[in-house]
């Protein structure tokens, strides 16, 4: 049988020797097609557009092809007037390009008024500016982290082509039950950049691969990577007398489809495909080791800033569509960074949906944490929506059907939605109230016991209709103090950020244990260590999903800086020497995480019912105080204990031991009565933060029998966890 190839893979016209034809409008971006590349870009308000093609890293383009103009017909001498546009999408296919040595951009023109210095404008079209594709799958220009840019180049952030031919072998997203996760928030560069890491290529995706054994030994089964979408580390304009300040954290996205080139060993090769493959290799290796990968995504704003910021992509492509503007054309700023994406405009909404679908499908990402997610629920005028279409679509999207979705349920515009974030049966939240309550309880504030009981049980006051897994519990995260600094400083110390200590949160609910910062006082140091262990123990016995911050397992400090976003230095780098220096703290956290994994009663998908629904004689959870069965709920109480009935296990499905947790945040020790167990069961000590290592925590199965089964002396400001079996 004779087969003929379809006619639509052939060019129809030429332009200055380049073969072209009308392209396909979907998908947006640059797509490799038989014989060529299909380019497609949306702009509702542009009147003219040109495709600009560069050889890799060249300052000047080798061809500029208009989307509207006179094009020569193939095999004829006459010309056609073509408009390579379908609706509001400029699209063409260009044939016989060298994909591996290609960078591309666009020029656009459109209606005025054009922006003049200090004069806001709705549109910011500039036909002299080369614009980056909003759908670029790879972005060059910042290929090597920290390499000084050449600002004389006219096209700084350069779109590239990516081959989607990675061999995933049998890999797929792990789909671990969310209630079983222990999340580890990590900065890609900071995890291995310190000289002590011993990594072959420190600060890269590849280097994390070398440290997978550390993650496995700690016991985490999900890493949440701080932003890895392409950003410009040179964006920061503040100065410090001691070091160059940078956009180190990366919460300032330039492109929502491209991994950060400077995080790859292959970034210097200026090969977008190799950067993608290096990240995919890391994800595949993490999956092989039972560790999910979650991305911290920043969809609330971009790195183009306000009226004073650069025109890189979205501003020049269609400013009025991509950003929320006020009646004078100024940028609404609910992100605190100069602009706010117009997330619920249908085109922008589709962009963000296309992005997470792409990462889920092409990178096998297991879940997403959405930075300042409350912005995603605002309309085009900034008002909160009762039924935000973007959040609803993300929750019900078929491609994202197995992905975890986690919201930072607040924004910089004053919208705080912890417990009220539109969930659609899917969304979990960073539980900021859990963080604040645990911190205040740890420092012995009054009026905390009642609220602590709620936070320990996955905040049913906030998530009664959503279940325990809606609560992502944390005591520390990248924002704010590290765990060591939480117990070492009363106040922030951000002078090194170049903003006269004005930046960063003022309400940290921290306590320095008697001395601000470094000290040689052994009693203070001992108390600080106990307080850190108290926080770790409480986090791991709480219902909900725990998250820990990179470095807290070794007592990392930032010297009181609670907003270290701008420091590419030892202030932020994981110091691997501390594994030896702080080995007892690492060991303690490791055993606490192992304890959580060993006991399904701690990992309920649904809220505890405070009743006996299996006929064990005990409710699934009961509250206690210094006297068994008699909790002290008074405002001055600093003690609280609870028992989980092992026969209820995980919602009555998986049987477990009995667990008894005693928290004494009083400055005096107390003798706590213990419930007497039936069936010949006895209490064993798993955790006692008052004790020195190795008696502060034991491996599951190696707990020590309590000598006096009727009572247990709990030291001042300490936590005890007992197992009844």
What does this structure look like?
This protein is of the alpha+beta class and 725 residues long. It has a domain of 154 residues: Immunoglobulin-like. The protein has 14 helices and 29 strands. The strands form 5 sheets. Strands 1, 2, 3, 4, 7, 8, 9 and 10 form an 8-stranded antiparallel beta sheet that branches. A hairpin with a 2-residue loop joins strand 9 and strand 10. Helix 8 packs across helix 9 and helix 12 packs parallel to helix 14. The mean pLDDT is 94. This is Glycogen debranching enzyme. GO terms for molecular function: amylo-alpha-1,6-glucosidase activity; isoamylase activity. Belongs to the glycosyl hydrolase 13 family.
How many extended strands? Answer: 29
Structural class per helix/strand content?
A: alpha+beta
Strand content: 15-25%
- Uncertain runs are none
